[in-house]
Amino acid sequence: MPAIMTSRQAAELNHAFERNGWTAEDVKELSKGNTLAKILRDLRGQVETKKEIKTEALIDFFGTVTFSARSEKFNPRDNFVVDTSKNAKVKIWGLGQRFEEEFLDKIEESSDGYNVCYGNLRKPLNKSLAN
CA angle, 125 as apex, 124 and 131 as ends, to 5°? Predict the structure, then answer.
């Protein structure tokens, strides 16, 4: 039986789960029963709704940035370097501890290129952040 997704697609799905705060337990729960069948019907537009559900947009989108394909790996330690000299490609005065912990050891594999949308949250997603 052929694979349902490529290793690249599996990695993208994994990053999407991480980016949206999913845990391994959440993914395990998602895999139970017919939850994925329901999501697939919704994804393909096959869900019949009895009433219109109004949702408020959470993000005001500003635009999209296109990242070109690259054949080599991206090492953050080589690219995020504290350097304020006049010859610096990008002047970086300092890196926060959390940035260093979260990103400096994450090596990105080569890429076919991709688009990233950016915007502004209309309100905090987590009520504890609003206080």
Answer: 45
Q: Which residue, among 83, 116, 111, 82, has the nearest Cα to 99 in the 3D structure?
A: 82
For all residues of the chain together, what is the average pLDDT? 81
Rounded CA-CA distance 99/85 in Å is 22
Return d(Cα 86, Cα 109) in angstroms, integer.
Answer: 30
The conformational region for residue 52 under phi > 0 = left, psi -120 to 50 = alpha, else beta, is beta
Residue 127, pLDDT score:
62
Q: Are 59 and 86 in contact (CB under 8 A)?
A: no
The region of weakest confidence among 31-45, 47-61, 86-100, 109-123 is: 47-61
Q: Closest Cα partner for 69 from 107, 112, 12?
A: 112
For tokens 């391994």, the residue is: 24
What does the block give as tokens for 21?
A: 């705060």
Cβ-contact 113, 66 below 8 angstroms: yes
pLDDT at 14: 83
The CA-based diameter of the chain, rounded to the nearest angstrom, is: 63
